[in-house]
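User: Before I run my own analysis I want an independent prediction to cross-check against. Here's the chain; please return only the C-alpha cells and, at the end, one sentence I can use as a sanity check.
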Amino acid sequence: MASQPTLARMSLLQPAPTQPLGYYDYFGKLLSPQDAAKLVQQKQLDPSNPISYQKIGAVEITQELIDKGEDIFFNRKIGDNFGLQDVFGFKRGLIRILPELTTAIAQLRGHSTDNLQITLQKDITLGSRTFPKGTVINTGFKVERGTLFPLGIKQNGDISCAVCHAVLSNRGERLAGVPNGELAIPLLVALAPNSAAGFARLNFNPLDPQYQGKGKTIIDSQGNLVTLPDPDKFEQAFDDAVLDVPFGHFESSPDGIDNTTQIPSIFTFQTHPYLADGQFAVGPFAGLSAINNAVHSSEINLLAAAQLSQKTLGIDSEVYIGTFLQNAADPRLRLPPGQPVKPSEWLRQVAPDVIQAELEDQVPAPGTGTYPDLQPSLFTYNGLVFSPDTNNPDDIASGNFLFASNAMSAFQNNLVPPANRTRENWQSEETFPKHRTKRSVVTLRTCKTLPAESESKPFSSVCWIGIMKGRFWNLGCQVAMGIIIRMGIAPNISELITTTGRVF
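Assistant: C-alpha cells:
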C-alpha cells in the first residue's frame, strides 16, 4: 500500500474533476444510467420512460441541458421588471451614464476591454457626494470585441448572470465562472433613483427619527397611522452607505445586517455545500439549484421580502411596502396624495396582477403557503421558486418546474478554472527548474498577489500551480507554499522566496 505522503501527492496532482455526461443528478448524488434505472424501478416506475426520472427528481445531465444553461446564464435577464425597473429604477440609473458608456465603447474601436473606463460628461451627485465632469471611473464592465454594450448588460436595462460571473482574458476571450471582482456594483446601485428600496440589504431602519421629514403617512397592518421616512433623506443616506461597499461586493439578503459578500466563482462541481457557511445544501445538484433559484427570486425580488419583514426586521410589512413605493422610479406607482392608505392595498390597485408584478416568472414552492404569506424553507428563503411558464416558446428559461435553475447548475458544474496564461507566468515556467516526481513533471507557476497580475483578475492573492497538461485547482498561497515544501520542490520558505523571486 502506498505511503500517506505518496497518496497525498497523487490526489493533489489530479486535474480538476469534471461532470460526466449521461449521468443523473439525484439531489446532489451522481447516478450512472444503470443506477438511475434501478432507482426508478424501485419506485415502481418504468425506466424506459424519461418522465419516470423526472417524477423522482432525477435530472439527466446532457449536453443540451448544459447548452441551455449557458444560454440562460449569458442572455436571460434576472429579476422582475416591476421591482427592479419600475420600483428600484435600475435602467433609469444606467441611462444617467449611457452617453459615457457609449462614448467609451466607441473609443475602443472594436477592441475588447476587461475594465471599461468612462469619463463623466457632466456632474453627477450620488448621496452627499458629487462626482465632477471629467471624473474617470472604472466600471469593471467587460466589453467583448465588436460589441456595443458590456457583457451581461442589455441596452433595455436587463442584466444577466454574466455581468457578475464572467470576465475576459488578456486575449479578449470569455472566461465563464470567474467572478468580476472589479464590477462597480455600488455605482450601479446608487445611480438608481430609488435605490433605498433595497434598504433591508443594509442596516437601515426607515422609522429612525433622523430620516423624518416629508415622508407620507400610511396605515400599518395594525390600523395605526405611521409616518414614513423623508424619501430624499433616506435615499441620500442609503446611497452614501452603498458607495462605501467595495467594488465586486454585493448584499443580497434582506435581513438588515450589513455584511456584504464578494462575488464568488462558480466552478461548482463537487464543491458543495455552497456559500461560505454551507447554507445551500439541499435540492437538485446538492443545493446549487437552490442558489440559482435565490439569485432569481429572494436575492433580487425587493418586494416579496415584505412578507417576512416583521419577523426578520421588526418592521411592519405596510411600512416596508410604503417605503419602497413612496419614491418609486415610476411615479405612477407612488403612494397617492390625500388621505393615508394601506400600501399593500395601493400596490394591488396599481398592479392588480401579481404575476405581472413582483411574482413575474416565480411561483410559490410546494408546501410554503399562499402569497403574500409564504413560509421560507431550506431551499427558498422567501417561499418562491424561479420557474417561468412552461409553455412560453419565446423564453429560453421556459420549461418544467425548476428547469432553468437545473440547467444553470449543469452548466456551472461543467466549468473548470481557466489556465494562467499571463506573460509573467510563462516566463516563470521557462526560468524555473523543473522537478520530477514519480508520476509527473511539476513546475512552479508564479504566485500572484495583485489582481492586475493575473489573467483571472478577481482571484487576488491566489496561486496557480501548473501540473503537466491539466488545469489545477486554485489554492491559497499559504496552502500552496506548504504543499510545495512538502513535495520537495523547495526545502523551506526562504528557499522558496529566493528561487521564485516572489514574496507570498
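Sanity check: Confidence is low (pLDDT under 50) at residues 1-10, 435-504.
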